[in-house]
C-alpha cells in the first residue's frame, strides 16, 4: 500500500518525465502520449482508473485516491499550465502536425481543469506576452473557456458552501470550497471585472468582438443568471449556498460602469422570477444586500429607475433598507435630499417601496418630514436649483399619496405646520415657477390631508408641471407582470406590418374628397354677391365714445359710469396716437390718471389697454411723460404693480421711439405735405402739366445719353431722425437716482428685489434703445457702476437681470469704448461672469453667464481685429 | 377694398310714432304702382305713395293700440292687426275707407297674424284665447277651420311669437320658449318641433324652394334650420351677430337675399344660399321693427323697406343690378 507521499513523488516523477518529453520531443505521437498521461493525472474529469493506471497503483481505496488526486492537482496544475504556456510557440505547436488530437489534448488542459486557475493563467499570459502566436492561442483559449461555460462552473463552485459550515448564505460564511485562498478569490474577481479592459490593453486593435464590453458583460450576466438558477435549485433542495462572490462580482462590474449591461440582462429576468417565487426574492435580496457598499448607489439607482412598478422593487429588495445601513442612508437620505432625478418613475419606486410594507412604513413619515422641512427651508428654496426643487416637490406629493387615513389623521397637525411654513417661503420667491410649485404642492397636500376641511385654492393656471404633480398623488397601480413580459417580447419580435398601410388607406381618398366638395361649392355659387364694407359693424355702446383727448380724460375719471370709462380706455391709445396739438399740455395729467387707473369694472384686456395707452403717451409726448413716470417711480404710495407698470411702459416706449418710423418729422417730407395742403386744387393741376413737359424733356435727354455704368439700383434708405436720442437721458438717469434709498413702501435693495430685477431689465432695454445716441457712453458708465455694486446679489432673478444689462451695454456702446474707456469695467465684469459660470448653483444663471461672456468676447475680439 | 356701405334711396319721415310694421302692397286701382303700408305704435295705419314719398291715407281703427301687422290684399283690401285684439279688414277706395270685417285675437301677446292666400281663397292664422293657441280662419266665410293647441301633457311652449305659412296645410310657429314647431293645419297636430333657441323666437322666415328656414331670437345668434324629407326640423347653420337681438327677418322674392333687422338699429343683409354676410346698413338709431322686400318693380328692382322705432321708414335698393 503506497503512502500519500509516495504517490505524490511518483506523480512528480511522472510529470517531470512528461515535461521532458514535451519540451524536447518533436514527434506528434510522443507529445500526444505525454499530454494524455498528464491529463489523466491532473484533470478531474479523467476517469479515476486512468489516474491509477498512470501512477501504477491499483490497490488504493477510492477515497484515498481522490484525496491523492486532489493533492497532486493542487500542487501541480497551475505549474503545469504555466509550463505549457511557456513552451507554447509556433514551432512547438507545429510538432502536432495536422492531427487534431494534439490540439484537443492541449485545449483540454485549459477547458476542463479548475476554471479559476485556467482563467488566471491565461489572462496572465495574454497580458504579459507581446503579440505572437502564443498570445493569439491564449486569447482563443480564453474565448473557448467562456464559450464552454467554464465561468458558470466557477461561479457555481463559489456558491457551494462546505457541508461543515453551519451558517447559511451569510456573507461571513465565505468558506466556499474552491476559492478559499482569499488572495486568489479577489484576483479572480478583479480579472473578471476588468477583463474587457485588460484584453483591449493587451491586444490593442486586434481585440476580438468577444471581449468588447457590449458582448462580454451581458455574457457574464447570463452566466450569473445560470448560477442563480443553480443556487435556486440548491436552496429548494434545502441545501446551503453562498451568494457572496456573485454579489460582489456584480458590484464590481457596476463600479466599472457596466450597470446597464449587467442589469439589462438580469433585471427583467429577476422581475419575472421573483413574481412567482419567494426563494427568488431572497436570492435577489441577497445579491443587493451583499454587493460592496461602493456599488450600492449605482445598483439601487439603476433598479429604481428601471423597475416599472414599486411592487417589484419591494420584491427585489425585501427589507434590505432595514438591515443594511448603507442602503438605508441611500434610500432615505441621499437619493431624496442630495440627488435628484428627472424621471418620475424614480421617486415613485422609491417611496412606493418604503410604503409597501408595514415594517418599512415608519420610514415614509420620517422621509416625508425631512423632505418637507428641506423643501420649506427658505435658504434651500433660494439656493437649490429648480430641478432639484421640483424633485423634492414630487417626492412630497408621492409620500402624501401613500399615507393612509390613520396616518393622515395622526400627523395632520405637524405636517400642515411644516407645509405652511414652506409655502410661505415659496410665495416669497421672485421666480414664478417656484411660487407655482409652492402653490400646487400646498393645494395637493391640503386636499389630501384633509379632504373635508377648508379648501385651499390658489388661482394658478394648470400647466404641465402641476398636472404631473396632481397625477402623482395616486400611487401607481400594478401594471401586471404578464402584460409586461408580453410587451417585452412583442417589442422585440413583432414589427407590426399592418399599421402604416392600414391606417392611411381609408384616410387618403377621403381628404381630397372633402376638398373637392369644398371647391365645387365654391364654384357653383351663383349668388356671389360682392359684400359691402362691414367694418362699421361694431359693438353698440350706450355711451358716446370720446373723440378728444380731454373728453377721454374726463371719461376715465368719471365716477359710476362704467361704460363711459371702458369706452374711453378703449379709444385712449387711438386718440393719443392721432397726436392732437394739446397733447403736451395734458400728457402728465393723462399719465397720472392712467397710472392710477384701477380695473374697477373688470374690463376685458384692461391691462393691455392701459399699458398701450401709456406707451402711446410716452412715445408721443416723451419728455413730459417720462419725467413724470420716472419721478413717480421713486415716489411713495405706489404698489409694486404700479411701479412695474412704470418700468414696462418706459421700456416699451424706449423701444418704440428708437425704431425708425415713417411718420417721423423728416423735414423735406413735411414741407411737401404742407404746400400740398395749402393749395390743393390749382397746385395739383399745375404739377400735372409740369410733369408732362418734364417727362418729355427727360425722355429726350435719356434717349441721347449713353451710360457706361449705373449707380446703385436700390435707393439708399431715407434717413429718419432718431426720436429717442434726445430723450434717452430723460428715460434713463432719473431711474438711477435713488435706488439705494429706502422708502416705507419700497426697499429695492431688500425685499423688493423683484422690482430691482425688473429695473435692471428696463435699464438694459433703454440702454439698447439708446445705442446710437451720444449720451450712450455716460449711460453705460453709470449702468456698469450700478451693476458692479449689485453683482453678488443673493437672488437669482437679480443676477440674471444684471447679466442682461451687461450684455445690453456691450451691444449698445460703440465697440471701441469697450477696449478703451470702459476696459476696466468690462474686465471686472468678465471676472464676475466667469465666477458665476463656475460657482452659481442655478444652471440658468450659468447658461446666461456663458452667453453674456460670449457676447462680450465676440464684440471685443471683433473690435481688436479691426484695430489690427 | 370693399365698397362703402350703401345709403337708403329715400326715407319716409311722416310718421310721428315708432313704426311697428311695414309692407309693400299693390295699388288696387292700377295694379302696377306699388305703395307701402305702415303701422305705428299709436294704432294708425298709413298708406305711402312711393312716387311722391308722402302718405296718402291714414287709417285709425285700433283705439290707439299698436299695430302688429298690416297687409294688403289683392282686391284693394287691407288687413291690419292691432294690440287691441282686433284684426280688421279695410275696404279702401278713392280716399274712402271703412272696416269691412273684424276678427278677434288674443290681446295678451305680440304675435302678428299671418295670411295665406292663393286663387282667391285665403286663411288667416291668429293667436287665440288660450296660452299657446293659434286659430286658422278662412277668409271666405270667416269660419275657424282649425285650432292649433299643443295636446295635454305636452311641455309648455309659452305664447306663440311669430308664424309663417309653409303652404296652405302647413304652418310654422315660433314659441316663447324658443321652440319652432311645424303644424299640420288639417289634422291640427304638431308634425315636428325643435328647440332651436334658448330665448323666445322673435321672428322666423322660410323658403319653400330651398326647404330652409331661419329664425332669430333675443340672443346674438341667427339659427338656420332645414326641414328634412322626413319632415323633421334640424339645425343647419348658426350665424353670430355683433349685437344681440333680432326683431325682423325677411327674404326677397327671388330667394337670394335675406335681411335681418336688429335691436342694435342695424339691418344686416345676407346671401340666402350660403348665409354669407353681405352688408350692414346703418341709418336708423333705434330698433328696426319690421322689414319687407317688394316684388320686382320695373325700373326699380326689388326695394326694401325698414320701419324703425325711431319713427322713420327707410327704403333701400340692394343688389338690383344683375351684374353685381
From TrEMBL, chain A:
<keyword id="KW-0472">Membrane</keyword>
<keyword id="KW-0963">Cytoplasm</keyword>
<dbReference type="GO" id="GO:0016020">
    <property type="term" value="C:membrane"/>
</dbReference>
<dbReference type="Pfam" id="PF10193">
    <property type="entry name" value="Telomere_reg-2"/>
</dbReference>
<keyword id="KW-0539">Nucleus</keyword>
<dbReference type="InterPro" id="IPR019337">
    <property type="entry name" value="Telomere_length_regulation_dom"/>
</dbReference>
<dbReference type="InterPro" id="IPR038528">
    <property type="entry name" value="TEL2_C_sf"/>
</dbReference>
<dbReference type="GO" id="GO:0051083">
    <property type="term" value="P:'de novo' cotranslational protein folding"/>
</dbReference>
<dbReference type="InterPro" id="IPR016024">
    <property type="entry name" value="ARM-type_fold"/>
</dbReference>
<dbReference type="GO" id="GO:0005829">
    <property type="term" value="C:cytosol"/>
</dbReference>
<dbReference type="Pfam" id="PF25320">
    <property type="entry name" value="TELO2_ARM"/>
</dbReference>
<dbReference type="InterPro" id="IPR057348">
    <property type="entry name" value="TELO2_ARM"/>
</dbReference>
<dbReference type="GO" id="GO:0042162">
    <property type="term" value="F:telomeric DNA binding"/>
</dbReference>
<dbReference type="InterPro" id="IPR051970">
    <property type="entry name" value="TEL2_Regulation"/>
</dbReference>
<dbReference type="GO" id="GO:0005634">
    <property type="term" value="C:nucleus"/>
</dbReference>
<protein>
    <recommendedName>
        <fullName>Telomere length regulation protein TEL2 homolog</fullName>
    </recommendedName>
</protein>
<dbReference type="GO" id="GO:0051879">
    <property type="term" value="F:Hsp90 protein binding"/>
</dbReference>
<comment type="similarity">
    <text>Belongs to the TEL2 family.</text>
</comment>
<feature type="domain" description="Telomere length regulation protein conserved">
    <location>
        <begin position="546"/>
        <end position="654"/>
    </location>
</feature>
<feature type="domain" description="TELO2 ARM repeat">
    <location>
        <begin position="357"/>
        <end position="455"/>
    </location>
</feature>
Automatic annotation (TrEMBL), chain B:
<dbReference type="Pfam" id="PF00400">
    <property type="entry name" value="WD40"/>
</dbReference>
<dbReference type="InterPro" id="IPR001680">
    <property type="entry name" value="WD40_rpt"/>
</dbReference>
<feature type="repeat" description="WD">
    <location>
        <begin position="246"/>
        <end position="280"/>
    </location>
</feature>
<feature type="repeat" description="WD">
    <location>
        <begin position="12"/>
        <end position="58"/>
    </location>
</feature>
<dbReference type="InterPro" id="IPR036322">
    <property type="entry name" value="WD40_repeat_dom_sf"/>
</dbReference>
<protein>
    <recommendedName>
        <fullName>Guanine nucleotide-binding protein subunit beta-like protein 1</fullName>
    </recommendedName>
</protein>
<dbReference type="InterPro" id="IPR015943">
    <property type="entry name" value="WD40/YVTN_repeat-like_dom_sf"/>
</dbReference>
<keyword id="KW-0677">Repeat</keyword>
<keyword id="KW-0853">WD repeat</keyword>
<feature type="repeat" description="WD">
    <location>
        <begin position="281"/>
        <end position="324"/>
    </location>
</feature>
<dbReference type="InterPro" id="IPR020472">
    <property type="entry name" value="WD40_PAC1"/>
</dbReference>
<dbReference type="InterPro" id="IPR019775">
    <property type="entry name" value="WD40_repeat_CS"/>
</dbReference>
Amino acid at each position: 500500500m503506497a503512502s500519500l507521499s509516495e504517490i505524490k513523488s511518483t506523480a512528480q516523477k511522472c510529470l517531470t518525465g512528461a515535461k521532458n518529453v514535451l519540451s524536447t520531443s518533436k514527434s506528434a505521437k510522443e507529445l500526444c502520449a505525454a499530454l494524455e498521461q498528464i491529463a489523466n493525472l491532473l484533470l478531474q474529469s479523467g476517469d479515476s482508473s486512468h489516474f491509477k493506471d498512470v501512477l501504477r497503483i491499483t490497490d488504493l481505496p477510492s477515497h484515498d485516491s481522490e484525496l491523492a488526486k486532489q493533492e497532486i492537482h493542487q500542487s501541480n496544475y497551475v505549474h503545469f499550465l504555466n509550463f505549457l504556456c511557456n513552451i507554447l510557440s509556433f514551432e512547438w505547436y507545429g510538432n502536432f502536425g495536422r492531427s487534431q488530437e494534439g490540439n484537443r489534448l492541449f485545449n483540454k488542459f485549459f477547458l476542463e481543469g479548475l476554471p479559476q486557475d485556467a482563467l488566471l493563467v491565461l489572462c496572465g499570459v495574454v497580458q504579459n506576452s507581446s503579440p505572437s502566436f502564443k498570445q493569439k492561442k491564449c486569447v482563443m483559449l480564453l474565448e473557448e473557456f467562456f464559450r464552454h461555460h467554464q465561468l458558470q462552473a466557477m461561479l457555481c463552485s463559489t456558491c457551494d458552501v462546505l457541508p461543515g459550515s453551519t451558517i447559511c448564505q451569510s456573507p461571513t460564511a465565505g468558506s466556499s470550497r474552491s476559492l478559499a485562498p482569499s488572495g486568489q478569490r479577489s484576483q479572480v474577481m478583479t480579472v473578471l471585472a476588468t477583463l474587457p479592459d485588460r484584453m483591449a490593453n493587451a491586444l490593442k486593435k486586434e481585440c476580438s468582438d468577444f471581449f468588447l464590453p457590449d458582448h462580454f458583460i451581458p455574457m457574464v450576466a447570463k452566466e450569473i443568471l445560470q448560477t442563480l438558477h443553480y443556487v435556486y435549485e440548491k436552496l429548494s433542495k434545502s441545501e446551503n449556498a453562498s451568494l457572496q462572490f456573485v454579489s460582489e462580482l456584480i458590484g464590481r462590474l457596476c463600479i466599472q460602469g457596466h450597470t446597464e449591461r449587467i442589469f439589462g440582462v438580469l433585471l427583467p429576468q429577476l422581475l419575472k422570477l421573483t413574481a412567482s417565487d419567494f426563494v427568488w426574492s431572497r436570492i435577489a435580496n441577497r445579491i443587493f444586500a451583499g454587493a460592496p457598499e461602493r456599488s450600492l448607489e449605482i445598483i439601487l439607482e439603476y433598479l429604481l429607475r428601471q423597475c416599472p412598478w414599486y411592487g417589484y422593487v419591494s420584491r427585489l429588495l425585501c427589507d434590505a433598507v432595514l438591515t443594511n445601513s448603507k442602503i438605508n442612508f441611500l434610500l432615505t437620505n441621499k437619493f431624496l435630499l442630495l440627488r435628484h432625478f428627472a424621471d418620475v418613475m424614480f421617486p415613485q419606486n422609491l417611496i412606493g417601496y418604503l410604503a409597501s410594507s408595514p415594517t418599512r412604513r415608519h420610514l415614509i413619515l420620517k422621509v416625508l418630514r425631512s423632505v418637507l422641512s428641506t423643501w420649506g427651508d427658505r435658504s434651500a428654496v433660494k439656493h437649490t436649483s429648480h430641478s432639484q426643487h421640483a424633485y423634492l416637490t414630487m417626492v412630497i406629493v408621492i409620500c402624501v399619496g401613500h399615507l393612509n387615513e390613520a396616518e393622515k389623521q395622526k400627523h395632520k397637525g405637524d405636517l400642515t405646520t411644516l407645509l405652511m411654513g414652506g409655502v410661505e417661503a415659496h410665495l416669497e420667491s421672485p421666480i414664478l415657477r417656484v411660487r407655482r410649485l409652492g402653490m400646487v404642492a400646498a393645494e395637493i397636500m391640503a386636499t389630501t390631508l384633509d379632504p373635508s376641511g377648508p379648501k385651499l385654492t390658489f388661482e394658478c393656471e394648470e400647466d404641465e408641471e402641476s398636472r404631473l404633480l396632481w397625477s402623482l398623488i395616486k400611487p401607481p397601480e400594478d401594471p401586471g407582470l404578464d402584460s409586461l413580459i408580453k410587451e417585452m417580447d412583442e417589442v422585440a419580435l413583432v414589427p407590426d406590418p399592418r399599421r402604416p398601410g392600414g391606417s392611411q388607406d381609408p384616410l387618403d381618398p377621403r381628404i381630397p374628397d372633402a376638398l373637392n366638395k369644398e371647391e365645387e361649392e365654391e364654384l357653383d355659387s351663383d349668388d356671389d354677391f360682392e359684400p359691402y364694407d362691414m367694418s362699421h359693424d361694431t359693438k353698440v355702446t350706450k355711451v358716446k365714445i370720446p373723440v378728444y383727448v380731454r373728453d377721454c380724460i374726463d371719461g376715465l375719471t368719471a365716477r359710476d359710469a362704467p361704460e363711459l370709462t371702458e369706452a374711453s380706455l378703449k379709444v385712449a391709445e387711438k386718440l393719443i396716437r392721432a397726436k392732437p396739438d394739446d397733447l403736451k399740455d395734458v400728457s402728465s395729467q393723462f399719465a397720472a390718471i392712467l397710472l392710477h387707473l384701477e380695473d374697477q369694472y373688470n374690463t376685458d384686456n384692461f391691462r393691455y389697454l392701459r399699458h398701450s395707452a401709456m406707451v402711446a403717451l410716452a412715445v408721443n409726448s416723451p419728455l413730459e411723460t417720462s419725467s413724470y413716470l420716472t419721478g413717480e417711480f421713486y415716489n411713495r404710495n405706489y404698489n409694486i404693480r404700479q411701479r412695474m407698470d412704470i418700468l414696462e411702459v418706459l421700456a416699451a416706449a424706449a423701444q418704440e421711439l428708437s425704431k425708425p418710423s415713417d411718420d417721423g418729422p423728416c423735414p423735406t417730407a413735411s414741407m411737401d405735405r404742407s404746400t400740398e395742403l395749402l393749395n390743393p386744387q390749382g397746385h395739383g393741376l399745375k404739377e400735372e402739366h409740369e410733369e408732362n413737359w418734364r417727362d418729355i424733356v427727360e425722355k429726350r435727354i435719356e434717349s441721347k445719353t449713353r451710360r457706361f455704368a449705373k449707380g446703385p439700383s436700390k435707393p439708399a434708405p431715407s434717413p429718419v431722425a432718431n426720436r429717442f436720442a434726445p430723450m434717452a437721458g430723460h428715460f434713463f438717469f432719473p431711474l438711477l437716482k435713488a435706488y439705494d434709498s429706502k422708502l416705507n413702501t419700497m426697499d429695492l435693495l431688500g425685499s423688493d428685489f423683484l422690482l430691482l430685477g425688473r429695473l435692471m431689465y428696463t435699464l438694459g432695454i433703454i440702454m439698447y434703445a439708446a445705442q446710437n445716441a451720444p449720451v450712450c457712453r455716460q449711460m453705460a458708465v453709470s449702468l456698469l457702476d450700478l451693476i458692479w455694486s449689485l453683482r453678488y446679489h443673493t437672488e437669482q432673478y437679480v443676477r440674471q437681470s444684471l447679466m442682461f444689462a451687461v450684455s445690453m451695454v456691450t451691444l449698445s456702446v460703440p465697440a471701441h469704448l469697450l477696449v478703451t474707456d470702459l476696459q476696466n469695467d468690462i474686465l471686472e465684469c468678465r471676472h464676475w461672469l466667469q465666477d458665476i459660470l463656475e460657482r452659481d448653483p442655478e444652471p440658468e444663471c450659468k447658461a446666461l453667464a456663458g452667453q453674456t461672456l460670449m457676447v462680450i468676447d465676440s464684440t471685443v475680439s471683433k473690435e481688436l481685429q479691426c484695430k489690427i | 377694398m370693399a365698397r362703402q356701405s350703401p345709403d337708403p334711396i329715400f326715407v319716409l319721415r311722416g310718421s310721428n310714432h315708432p313704426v311697428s310694421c311695414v309692407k309693400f302692397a299693390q295699388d288696387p286701382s292700377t295694379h302696377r304702382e306699388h305703395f307701402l303700408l305702415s303701422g305705428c305704435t299709436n294704432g294708425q295705419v298709413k298708406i305711402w305713395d312711393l312716387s311722391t314719398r308722402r302718405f296718402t291715407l291714414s287709417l285709425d281703427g285700433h283705439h290707439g293700440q299698436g299695430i302688429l301687422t298690416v297687409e294688403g290684399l289683392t282686391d284693394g283690401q287691407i288687413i291690419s292687426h292691432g294690440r287691441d285684439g282686433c284684426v280688421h279688414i279695410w275696404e279702401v277706395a278713392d280716399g274712402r275707407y271703412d272696416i269691412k270685417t273684424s276678427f278677434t285675437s288674443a290681446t295678451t301677446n305680440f304675435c302678428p297674424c299671418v295670411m295665406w292666400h292663393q286663387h282667391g281663397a285665403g286663411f288667416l292664422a291668429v293667436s287665440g284665447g288660450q296660452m299657446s293657441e293659434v286659430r286658422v280662419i278662412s277668409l271666405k266665410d270667416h269660419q275657424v277651420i282649425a285650432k292649433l293647441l299643443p295636446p295635454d301633457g305636452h311641455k309648455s311652449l309659452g305664447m306663440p311669437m311669430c308664424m309663417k305659412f309653409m303652404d296652405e296645410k302647413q304652418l310654422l310657429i315660433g314659441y316663447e320658449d324658443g321652440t319652432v314647431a311645424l303644424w299640420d293645419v288639417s289634422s291640427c297636430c304638431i308634425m315636428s318641433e325643435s328647440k332651436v333657441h334658448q330665448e323666445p323666437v322673435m321672428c322666423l322666415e322660410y323658403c319653400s324652394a330651398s326647404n330652409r328656414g331661419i329664425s332669430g331670437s333675443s340672443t346674438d345668434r341667427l339659427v338656420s334650420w332645414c326641414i328634412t324629407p322626413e319632415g323633421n326640423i334640424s339645425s343647419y347653420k348658426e350665424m353670430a351677430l355683433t349685437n344681440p337681438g333680432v326683431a325682423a327677418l325677411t327674404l326677397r322674392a327671388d330667394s337670394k337675399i335675406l335681411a335681418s333687422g336688429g335691436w342694435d338699429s342695424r339691418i344686416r343683409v345676407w346671401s340666402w344660399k350660403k348665409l354669407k354676410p353681405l352688408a350692414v346698413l346703418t341709418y336708423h338709431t333705434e330698433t328696426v321693427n319690421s322689414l319687407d322686400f317688394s316684388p320686382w318693380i320695373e325700373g326699380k328692382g326689388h326695394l326694401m323697406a325698414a320701419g324703425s322705432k325711431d319713427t322713420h321708414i327707410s327704403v333701400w335698393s340692394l343688389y338690383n343690378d344683375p351684374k353685381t
